């Protein structure tokens, strides 16, 4: 994202234009969520993964060769489209392929690997840029997209290995799959209950990513120290995914979801009381811990709620809720900061986190297969 902004500026764009080009990544993600569900329902998860990888390559190539801001913006929008399609298809694929008793560990690992990539990506990009110039970041993107394409192309489709188990097997792709909007209307109750909890969770997570660097700037930390805070917090974030997944598989989803939201809320309050590098670093690590124990949580909850038939369409709506929260969080901070101090924005996000924690506490047990199994055993006893 920093390279996108710098490229836009090099092509003659203003600061506002550069910010808009960066935002096109998230805009493309949100716009493509529902169409990605329709594509996956029609052509299957593996084909959608291949298509997404190809779109990523084309988007990276377009950004590399862009001679004006319009071409750069279109290329970044395409990258957003590919991210939506890849994210949905990989979640749907694992939902079908992995047994329920391993689901949280599998999806938490997926979330953890994503975090590792987000952590390492800037360092790989910086290394290449130091030898090739700023355009090297797009070369990294293109090489990664080719790698993803080849891995998917030559991987065995493990979702087809359990034809007798409707919970794991991928249903045959129908000639005319159910339209996405009709499927979402049919599942409006769960999207309007548990899905709203995911919206709360996404807002809290996205605001954590925004509030730490903004607060670092407000207390006078330079760019190097602010980056160090963010990097160390990211390391804390990415180390906890597997234990969290194992805990969810054994004790239920709520045992991770509720503490994650509470910790994020407490961290948002504590940010307000930091005044230097050390104190902000400690709070940022707390926020990273709260976020890290929730790795894969949104995908796991979506997998629990997804129907065996029409899974891609449902997950399209699920991801739309999540991505909308990711986009709304920073906008909320910006809106509050226009009329009040940044501390006020942090407190508001803390309140949203606490409300979200209570909301998830109420709704998760109704759809959690681990809780349902536990309840069934208690009734049998």
Automatic annotation (TrEMBL):
Q: Where in the cell is it found?
A: Cell membrane
Which GO molecular function terms does the record list? transmembrane transporter activity
This protein is called: MFS transporter
Residues in Major facilitator superfamily (MFS) profile domain copies: 1-361
- Membrane-crossing ranges are 20-41, 48-65, 71-89, 110-130, 136-154, 223-242, 254-274, 280-306, 327-355
- Provenance organism: Nakamurella alba
Q: Name one GO cellular component term.
A: plasma membrane
Topology term for the membrane: Multi-pass membrane protein
Q: Which UniProt keywords apply?
A: Cell membrane, Membrane, Transmembrane, Transmembrane helix, Transport
